[in-house]
Design goal:
This protein is of the alpha/beta class. It has 12 helices and 8 strands. The protein has one domain: Alpha-Beta Barrel (TIM Barrel), CATH 3.20.20.
Length: about 325
């Protein structure tokens, strides 16, 4: 039986309140906590008590931060790699994969029950990653193929009681469009978050404006909003500064701590943490210029220290 979602019909982040989310889960687990996650498959931690404790302790650093700021919080499930192709490499069949995706939402519902307050609503998001590599556009897929492929995970999130689905590190508009269509067919709000290269374009070479326009035109503005993740603010600041009506469709940023390119990050044996204070000020500058950007967190290389600086800087900017 499908569980009733708390915020699916009225996402509170659409009202303009500041919402925080977490930083780079996988890079924190691998580089700071010593977990062996060769393909960043954090969902496997749900299958052990020790892994669940690691995920719980991770969120324990963030949720109180949102409460202290009087901000909402997006609880993102650790399921970026929990789709059929990636899970198959780890020996997860369809039944096991369905179970772990349901468990991810159950886990977050328990976290929300522990922390949520009246002034800090906590929204549960089922996290979806690309079928391929989040740094490489790879083999082209059609929107129809993407829709059929991602409908499996989206349907599980819907029935488990997630408030929305968020697709991160989307490298091309076709896969993003397929996910948006699958979410719409399932009656789920969705967020599409594109990854950008150092020139501010998608790995396919598409501009961010083109990608958003493509998905919006084909879905009658189906996504609740768009985000940017896995890129440093210096990579996309000029893109936002160029303006256009499409910029208002952006509501969230989850930036990398590093200014390096994806290729450089892929080949680096060490984590580039960047400068948390500088990153916080860069977010605050974006927040002042584009006040609709109210969903803020981090991506590769960031941790609670970066998000804390982002929170403090944006509170001052507000």
């Amino acid at each position: 039986m499908a569980r009733t979602a708390k915020y699916r019909e009225h996402l509170p982040q659409l009202n303009g309140q500041l919402f925080l989310t977490d930083g780079g889960l996988e890079t924190t687990l691998v580089f700071h906590e010593g977990w062996d996650l060769p393909s960043f498959e954090a969902f496997v931690l749900l299958d052990s008590d020790r892994g669940r404790q690691a995920l719980s302790s991770y969120l324990d650093r963030y949720a109180p931060m949102a409460i202290a700021a009087g901000a909402g919080f997006i609880l993102e499930s650790p399921t970026w790699r929990a789709n059929p192709d990636w899970a198959e490499k780890l020996g997860y069949g369809r039944e096991a994969l369905a179970r772990v995706n349901r468990d991810a939402i159950d886990f977050l519902i328990a976290i929300r029950a522990r922390y949520e307050t009246q002034t800090s609503p906590m929204v549960i998001s089922g996290c979806i990653g690309p079928r391929g590599d989040g740094y490489d556009a790879g083999v082209a897929t059609s929107p129809e193929e993407a829709e059929n492929y991602h409908a499996f995970q989206i349907g599980i999130f819907r029935d488990a009681g997630a408030d929305l689905v968020s697709a991160f590190t989307m490298t091309n508009s076709n896969e993003a469009l397929g996910i948006a269509r699958a979410a719409k067919a399932a009656g789920m709000p969705c967020v599409i978050s594109f990854t950008l290269e150092t020139d501010g374009r998608l790995p396919t070479g598409e501009s961010l404006a083109q990608a958003i326009a493509t998905v919006d035109a084909a879905t009658d503005e189906g996504p609740a909003y768009y985000m940017i993740n896995c890129a440093h603010p210096t990579h996309f600041d000029h893109v936002l500064a160029a303006g256009g009506a499409w910029v208002k469709r952006l509501r969230g940023i989850r930036a990398n701590s590093s200014r390096c390119s994806h290729a450089e990050l892929d080949n680096s044996p060490e984590l580039d943490m960047g400068d948390p204070v500088e990153l916080g000020e860069q977010y605050a500058d974006l927040f002042r210029r584009f006040p609709q950007l109210n969903v803020l967190g981090g991506c590769c290389g960031t941790d609670y220290r970066h998000v804390e600086r982002i929170s403090l800087a944006c509170q001052r900017a507000a």
